[in-house]
Amino acid sequence: MTGLAKDAAKRILDKVDGPARVGMVLGSGLGALADEVENAQRFPYQSLPGFPVSSVSSHASELVVGSLMGVQVAILAGRAHYYEHGDATVMKQPLATLKALGCDQVLLTNAAGSLREDIAPGELMLIDDHINWSGRSPLIGVESDDRFVGLTEAYDASIRADLAKAAEAADVALKSGVYAWFSGPNFETPAEIRAARILGADAVGMSTVPEVILARWMGLRVAAISTITNFGAGMTGNELSHEETKEMGPVGAQKLIGVIRAYLKAMAD
């Protein structure tokens, strides 16, 4: 754990009701979840050492700590992306701070494009594995043998099972699949989408994978859910845009908020 993360956690713990159990990273359209936190203390990223600030219009940049469904949570409302900085380690300090706040698990969320006709825009996909299409790793340059992180169980099976139960309790359809990370910020070409489908991807996006690698390196348990905002390039004949992501993100986000509520409620019971 870095000194910057310890410093940030100390500042935060001095102002909140106790350590957090669950950390979250909110993707596009999910800012409303942070607004539901009770006894919330909000910390703009600019005020925390080592925290990046996102330049993406649909992302906030604050850490929110408080109680949600009876569970103490630490929510990263907004993320910085590889494509903003050219740096796969950009979320290292925020994730290390979640761990320093007491979290032993992190729930990652994102907006993604579907490569499957049976997972339409507005639906959710539980990630059970990923493909690092970009080839970049946030552990490049780490000078110790702990950089050789195993990812066979990158996405915690127990948390995934509990999220599936939570989705059932919330009456939300939750399919599962493989997420492919493209660096962005441009959208993929139809040929790249065809190639990703051949390789076994079910959704594509521009985040999450570096965070998974970093979180597993730090010893955090990980789960991730995508809100589907569009079909991949070439699947419908329409051009893709960030406006479509911002428009469709909240549709799936409301379902995901219901799943997360049910997951935390079961944890609190």
What does this structure look like?
Helix content is 33%, strand content 25%. It is α/β, with parallel strands linked by helices and 269 residues long. It has a five-stranded mixed barrel with strand order 5-8-7-6-9. It has a single domain, classed as Nucleoside phosphorylase domain (Rossmann fold), CATH 3.40.50. It contains eight helices and nine strands. The protein starts with a helix and ends with a helix. The longest helix has 27 residues. The mean pLDDT is 92.
What is the architecture at the second tier of CATH?
Answer: 3-Layer(aba) Sandwich
Domains (count): 1
Radius of gyration: 17 Å
Shape: globular
Structural class: alpha/beta
Number of helices: 8
CATH topology label: Rossmann fold
What oligomeric state do the depicted chains represent? single chain
Q: Could you give the order of strands across the largest sheet?
A: 5-8-7-6-9
The end-to-end distance, rounded to whole angstroms, is 31 Å
Level-1 CATH class name: Alpha Beta
Element-by-element helix/strand order: HEHEEEHHEEHEHEHEH
Largest sheet geometry: 5 strands, mixed, barrel
Q: Please, what is the average pLDDT?
A: 92
Helices and strands in order:
Blueprint: H1 3-13, E1 22-26, H2 31-35, E2 38-44, E3 62-68, E4 71-77, H3 82-85, H4 92-100, E5 105-114, E6 124-131, H5 157-169, E7 174-181, H6 190-199, E8 203-205, H7 209-217, E9 221-231, H8 242-268
Parallel strand pairs: 1-4, 1-5, 5-9, 6-7, 7-8
Antiparallel strand pairs: 2-3, 3-4, 5-8, 6-9
Helix pairs in contact: 1-4, 5-8
